[in-house]
């Protein structure tokens, strides 16, 4: 039994429905949806040719050119890929830019191959509009709560534990600090915004939020790496209360050592191999320190830089523990004073502070404490 075309965007996003994106690769690379897969009807060059033909000779001539460009064996290969995807994801849909000719042609060719697969009405443009509207509504209406704490507190672990939380750093593929770059780069701004809107929708539909608890976010600045938080979310976060996680310095050093040294090195080596991965990792750390040199000041930058050089030399010999020395200096002399100053300007918004167990109890509590603090 065939399924109808759909405009039920909320259900599609909440259930992570797989999607075929039939737009050209250049369109997909600019911005797509979290569960979409690029299976384009035309290459970038073919799309450009058809577009020029449309402007000069009209729609019918453009359609005829498109059919000539995508025919024979090329057409057969495309249809085979679409049908394979449909068989693997029978609950999915396909879409193009506005739900027009490209997705109609794909749907028709699949049907001729014996596969009846539904389209998204309105295409990517309609889904993007839905996400923008939902995002703006949630930012305006939904209570939010920020989880704060000094660098190295491992706030991300707590964010990941709670279904009503949205992991901004995870969505941005960045660890948040000046040393937060990760191999593989970050998503485009549009991809970040789309994924963020979807995760806010999912958080809003969690039982805890429906019962009155706020959506939980990590206390972030305007940028997570190079991904910018949309202005509406910045404004919502600026008026949200803060729960402060307090963690001893030694524990923060150990977390930073595991996260920014051991885990980061493993990511680089997984991508580039052992030797090249280590060199990329070492350059990453050096460049990260260089980027904050002005805020560190000349003396501190030189001192911490020397500790980093010694640590990298020892690490090459299989002794990575020296990294803890420059991490300690960076936390105590740079990150802590900066964070304390920023937090002092928002002290009136702190509604609770405590160790990991106390904060976890508050955030997972079914009592009315958080609701009353965000009303």
Please give the alpha-carbon distance between the first and last residues. Answer: 48 Å
For the record, the count of structural domains works out to: 2
Spans of at least 5 consecutive residues with low confidence? none
Mean pLDDT: 93
In helices, the fraction of residues equals: 55-70%
Based on CA atoms alone, the radius of gyration comes out at 25 Å
The main sheet comes to: 5 strands, parallel
Beta-strand content: 5-15%
Annotation field: number of helices: 19
Shape: globular
Pattern of helices and strands: HEHEHHHEHHEHEHHHEEEHEHHHHHEHH
The tally of beta strands, per DSSP, is 10
Q: Strand order of the main beta sheet, please?
A: 5-6-4-9-10
Structural class: alpha/beta
Features:
single chain, 375 residues, alpha/beta, Oxidized Rhodanese, domain 1, 2 domains, 5-stranded parallel sheet, 3-stranded parallel sheet, 10 strands
Describe this structure in words.
- The chain has 375 residues and is α/β, with parallel strands linked by helices.
- The chain folds into two domains: 9-129, Oxidized Rhodanese, domain 1, CATH 3.40.250; 142-375.
- Helix content is 61%, strand content 9%.
- It has 19 helices and ten strands.
- The chain has helices at 9-14, 25-30, 44-57, 59-69, 72-88, 101-112, 123-141, 155-161, 168-172, 189-204, 207-210, 231-238, 249-272, 274-291, 293-296, 298-316, 323-344, 356-364, 369-374; strands at residues 19-21, 36-38, 93-95, 144-148, 165-166, 215-218, 223-224, 227-228, 242-245, 350-354.
- A five-stranded parallel beta sheet has the order 5-6-4-9-10, with helices on both faces. The protein has a three-stranded parallel beta sheet with strand order 2-1-3, with helices on one face. A two-stranded antiparallel ribbon has the order 7-8.
- Helix 3 runs antiparallel to helix 4 (59-69) and helix 7 (123-141) runs parallel beside helix 12 (231-238).
- It is globular and about 70 Å long.
- The mean pLDDT is 93.
């Amino acid at each position: 039994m065939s399924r109808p075309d759909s405009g039920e965007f909320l259900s599609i996003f909440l259930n992570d429905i797989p999607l075929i994106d039939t737009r050209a690769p250049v369109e997909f690379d600019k911005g797509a949806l979290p569960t979409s897969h690029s299976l384009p009807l035309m290459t970038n060059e073919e799309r450009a040719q058809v577009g020029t033909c449309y402007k000069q000779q009209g729609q019918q001539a453009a359609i005829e050119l498109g059919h000539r460009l995508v025919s024979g064996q090329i057409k057969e290969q495309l249809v085979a890929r679409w049908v394979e995807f449909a068989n693997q994801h029978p609950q999915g849909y396909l879409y193009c830019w506005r739900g027009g000719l490209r997705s109609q042609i794909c749907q028709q060719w699949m049907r001729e191959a014996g596969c009846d697969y539904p389209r998204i009405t309105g295409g990517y443009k309609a889904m993007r509009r839905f996400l923008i509207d939902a995002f703006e509504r949630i930012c305006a209406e939904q209570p939010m709560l920020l989880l704060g704490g000094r660098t190295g507190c491992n706030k991300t672990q707590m964010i990941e534990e709670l279904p009503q939380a949205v992991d901004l750093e995870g969505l941005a593929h960045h660890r948040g600090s000046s040393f937060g770059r990760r191999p593989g780069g970050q998503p485009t701004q549009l991809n970040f915004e789309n994924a963020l809107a979807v995760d806010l929708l999912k958080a809003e539909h969690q039982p805890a939020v429906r019962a009155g608890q706020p959506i939980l976010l990590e206390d972030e600045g305007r940028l997570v790496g190079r991904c910018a938080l949309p202005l509406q979310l910045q404004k919502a976060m600026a008026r949200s209360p803060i729960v402060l996680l307090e963690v001893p310095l030694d524990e923060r050093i150990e977390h930073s050592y595991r996260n920014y040294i051991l885990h980061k090195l493993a990511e680089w080596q997984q991508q580039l191999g052992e030797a090249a991965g280590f060199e990329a990792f070492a350059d990453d750390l050096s460049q990260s320190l260089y980027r904050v040199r002005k805020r560190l000041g000349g003396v501190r930058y030189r001192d911490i830089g020397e500790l980093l050089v010694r640590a990298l030399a020892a690490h090459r010999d299989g002794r990575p523990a020296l990294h803890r020395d420059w991490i300690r200096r960076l936390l105590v002399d740079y990150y802590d004073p900066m964070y304390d100053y920023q937090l002092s300007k928002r002290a009136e918004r702190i509604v609770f502070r405590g160790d990991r167990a106390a904060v976890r109890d508050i955030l997972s509590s079914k009592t009315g404490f958080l609701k009353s603090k965000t009303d």
